[in-house]
Amino acid sequence: MAEEFSTDGMLDMYLFENGQLLEQLQDTVLEQKDADSFDEDSINEIFRTMHTIKGSSGIMMFDNITAVAHKLEDVFYYLRESHPDNVPHVELVEHVLTVADFISNEMDKIRGGDTPDGDEKGIIADLDKFLNSIKSGGKQEGKEEPPANVHVEPKQFYIAPVATSASRFYKIIITFFPETEMANVHAYKIVYALKEMAEDILYSPEDIISDPNISEVILQEGFRILLQAQCAEEAIREAIGIGYDVKQVDIFECKAEEFLQGFDFGGQSQQVIGIDLDSSVEEIDARTTGKAEGSGEKEEKAEKPQIAPGDFVIKSKEPGKQKKLAKDNKASFISVDVRKMDQLMDLIGELVISESVVLQSPDLKVPGLNLDNFNKAAAQLAKNSTDLQNVIMSMRMVPLTNTFQKMNRIVFDVSRKLDKDIEFVMVGEQTEVDKNIIEHISDPLMHIVRNSVDHGIESREERISAGKPEKGKVTLSAKTEAGKVWISVEDDGQGLSREKILAKARKQGLLDPDKPDEAYTDKEVFQFITLPGFSTNEQVTEYSGRGVGMDVVIQNIQAIGGSLEIESVAGMGSIMSLKIPLTLAIVDGIVMETGTSSFVMETSAIKQFVRVREDMMIHEPNGDEYVMIRGECFPVIRLGDWYGLTDYKRNVEEGIMMILEVEGRNVCLMVDNLIGEQEIVVKPIPSYIRKVKGLSGCTQLGDGSIALILDPAGLME
Predict the structure, then answer these.
(1) How far apart are CA 230 and CA 165, in angstroms?
(2) Of 63, 120, 662, 674, which sits 20 to 30 A from 131 (CA to CA)?
(3) Which helix (H) or strand (E) holds 441?
(4) What are the strands of the beta sheet with 673-681, ordered from one edge?
């Protein structure tokens, strides 16, 4: 069988499942990195995670991953069994994260089609040294050491029986959820997990790897195992586990004679027993002998057939009932290539544009046409199109949890290397963002967090001398507002020095010689650090100062229509806020005209539409304009003047004002006409066009013309 074994169909599942396990492992470790020790549940969880990764990597024949996972499993096996008191917790956390990094790097090689050839010897040596140190220092008098956690590399599927007086015999029936993909692979993993405790193991169906059609048989009839081992039922259940694939595990202990009869009756005709998996062995036994419940009569001398664990043939349940059970107990999931999701999103965007072209066709404006039936069909089309958009967008929305946990890891690593004590706080990590957005903000966020830890938070001595708590604090938060996502990194460090930044800007020739330093606002000064090569950090370190890499941050954020805002108070700390769109796909917008040009504004940014009279206007000598609306004064932006357009309506009574609200600030935008509300497909402005203030993208309208998408925050700057 070993010669026929092929891992080709299992690789994607291996990478997916172990990737999920590593994420959960890192979350568990980072949650307790500041504790005195891992609690019992965490120790068991890490042990099980390493045991699973070891088993699946062994199946896939990735020996270095198997060896590293097994060695870390040894450490947590000792912790679980011996409960030593002298475990250096931070060192243990670092060892676990080192192993997780090694396995992740090897899996990245596998994804790229390369061989996982990383050298595991150094990590194993460090883990051996660590394990020996806690063993030598934690041996308590009168307490026996736990037995070694021995991993026996299987040579073949069948293990020859070596029964002893301590041997126990089990029949096991495993039922998978009907939607489980590649059930044969899951069955093989269970066999592999049981082999370490087995003295003898047989299973049916046998051809769980080489026969591609065996999955259907397993789903319909179940997977049956005969197990001889010196362990209790609880250990078997723990090895098998019940997760998203296994629906139910039924274990029955039997006698050696029944075990040896295998999966048939030894030549007798096989009986079919419809098992509901709730009946006891006695009830099933009664059915096979023909005894009715409560009957006191003894059967005639008809021989009672011996029931072996493999004798049960599970009838397929009715399709309706099976479907209902699956619906009640388990959500159905499927892994999809993200490139296919991107392609689907693009096609839906084109569908929205095509819908607009159809519904706004000039042919529909011919006088006298009866469009009642067309309008009904168009309304149904619009509804279906909107529902389709909502579904695909919800599929692409993922929480920021994983991204935030990566930042948690960065803070832990950098603070350890810089010998800084830092508390990391996460707020709003469940905020959901389009997957493409997350991919664009991961690197910028990493730069900002690193700089906060390295250049923002002071050393222990500096904090104590400044009267601050010895432990620094970095807060990573996320929230949604007006169709945008705000992600802020706040630290209570030394803040930005306005004087140092101005001095460096003057040295690089960035300041206007005719403009005094006092004329620059803090916001303008702090934006200098986002220019390429601009840094106030005198020393070049592994993690650099705030200026190094900040130009990359700005480029990546601007590429998705976002922006960076910096607030800082010297000696108190800094707040760096990323403002990014919730999605790059389709948004609701208001189409408007100014002169001969079309513009679009996101509906979420518009507070109100108003008509104003000339006597409501206030004109300043410097050209600034304001309007009084219900006793409140708003600054006015004429869109025609803003972009230097011609032939637009200059009389405020002929145009219309839109009150925009962003981050608590308000402004009135004057345009000529409102065309209507429309779903718009956001397209980036081509890179060969210089970035224009107040624009975030463009879109195609129903008549085929191009409209520019306005950025309200950019208009207020």
Answers:
(1) 9
(2) 63
(3) helix 435-451
(4) 673-681, 586-594, 597-602, 706-710, 695-700
Residue 202 tokens, joined: 């047989």
Return the structure tokens found at 454: 């390295």
499-506 contacts, C-beta under 8 A, 24 or more apart: 500/536, 501/525, 501/526, 501/528, 501/529, 501/536, 504/528, 504/534, 504/535, 504/536, 505/534
Backbone angles phi, psi at 536, to 5 degrees: -95, 0
* 647 φψ region: left (φ > 0), alpha (ψ -120 to 50), beta (else): left
Q: Please say whether the beta carbons of 211 and 81 come within 8 A.
A: no
Tokens, residue 139: 């041996």
Is residue 460 within 8 A of residue 550, CB to CB? The reply is no
**DSSP code of residue 258:** H
Q: Distance from CA of residue 445 to its chain's centroid?
A: 16
Residue pair 80/47 in contact (Cβ under 8 Å)? The answer is yes
Residues 6+ away with beta carbon under 8 Å from 220: 314, 316
Predicted confidence (pLDDT) per residue in 596-624, tens digit: 889 998 887 888 899 988 889 998 888 88
Cis peptide before 205 (omega within 30 of 0): yes
258-272, 344-358, 391-405: least confident range: 258-272
Instruction: Supply the DSSP symbol for 250.
Output: E
**pLDDT tens-place string over residues 402-443:** 888 888 888 888 888 888 888 899 998 888 888 778 878 888
